[in-house]
Structure formats: C-alpha cells, structure tokens
Design goal:
The protein has 102 residues and is of the alpha+beta class. The chain contains three helices and five strands; from the N terminus they run βαβββααβ. Strands 1, 2, 3, 4 and 5 form a five-stranded antiparallel sheet that branches.
Length: 102
C-alpha cells in the first residue's frame, strides 16, 4: 500500500514550503530517502490542490514503529491520514488532507 493524499490550501506558496519541511523531517525520523512524492498542483475556485504519496518503505516504518499510536480511525487508511495530517499541523501547516482511494 502506498498511501495517496490530496492536500488543499488557499496559500500554496507558503504551504508547499511547510509541507516539504515536515515531510523531510519525517524522512529523517524514519531514516528513509525518497519517502514521499509531491505532485504538481492544480487550482479550482481559489483553492490549490496537490497530491502527496508516501513510499511503501516509509509507510511500513511508520506503521510498524508505533508512530501512529493514538491516531484516530477504524481502518489503517484513516489512521495514516490522521497521523500525516497531525504531523503536518505540528510543523505549522494548515493544509486540509483527504485520502484518495485508488
């Protein structure tokens, strides 16, 4: 499973920097390189939307390490979404996050 999330914001230029810093920090914590991928944004009705995908390796480390302990959700998809959302928020980001099922 490679979790894919859609992030949305009204201030892309500011948020992309915060998201990259947060995800770089998570990569260091997980001791993974190329642990995530950010996709090009698109705009609609004043909002910017862009996708974030975690690598299989990074997801596996997060899941097995206990980092998601306390993340709400009945299924693993909900838990990882909540974990990533709170992680980004703890690093100053105010993006909205949504799971993309594929």
């Amino acid at each position: 499973m490679q979790p894919l999330f859609q992030l949305s914001t009204r201030n892309y230029e500011k948020e992309i920097i915060l998201v990259k810093k947060a995800m770089d920090s998570l990569e260091k914590t997980c001791k993974v390189s190329n642990g995530y991928e950010l996709f090009d944004p698109f705009e609609k009705a004043g909002w910017s939307f862009f996708n974030l995908q975690l690598s299989q390796e990074m997801f596996s480390i997060i899941e097995k390490s206990g980092m998601m302990e306390g993340a709400l959700g009945f299924r693993i998809g909900e838990q990882i979404k909540n974990f990533v959302g709170h992680y980004l928020e703890s690093h100053g980001s105010q993006v909205r996050i949504k799971n993309i099922e594929y």
